Amino acid sequence: MNVLRRALAVTLGLWVLFGLAYPLVITGVSGIVFPYQAAASPVVVNGRVVAAANVGQEFTAMDQFWGRPSATVSLTTGKPQPYNAENSAPSNLGPTNPVLIEHVRGRIAHLLATTPGLKRDQIPPDLVESSGSGLDPDISVQAALIQIPRVAKATGLTSARLRALVATATQGPDFGLFGKPVVNVVALNLALERALRKR
Prior knowledge:
Layout: H1 2-33, H2 35-38, E1 42-45, E2 48-52, H3 98-114, E3 138-140, H4 141-145, H5 148-155, H6 159-168, E4 170-171, E5 182-184, H7 185-198
Antiparallel strand pairs: 1-2, 3-5, 4-5
């Protein structure tokens, strides 16, 4: 009986410590040290939250920059629902899977058909392959730059103006050391929207 009481006491103590106290402490500390990130990195426009800086959104219009493909699906229907933060996941399709190959070929064909002057060897992988989370908000600088002819044609903005917008949405390597510069697509399209309003 003593052994059972001790086992229950240890179980209850560990549950309180790691199930309640630890999450509360970590949540409190993160709210103090990293308040913006702890609040889900909100992007606010005119006093209204329109996005999260660390979660991508689906952009498909010709006058917008397109982000990385997303393989997330709806929890209720199982059908594709890009950038569904409730069901973050990759497609889990291997590189030789015919479904993945068909998807990639379709994305390449769409890019070639919609972007003036684009050549197949200019297309970076991040414009045709989804990320592991399905929520990646960033694309490579190259992926943004190759879209400029299409966006310029659709919006009437000059290529030079669009390159400047890409530069403003470009983030350097983490801590200045790790990874390559990337472009936040939400930030870029918001900057594009502001530029179009000011015309």
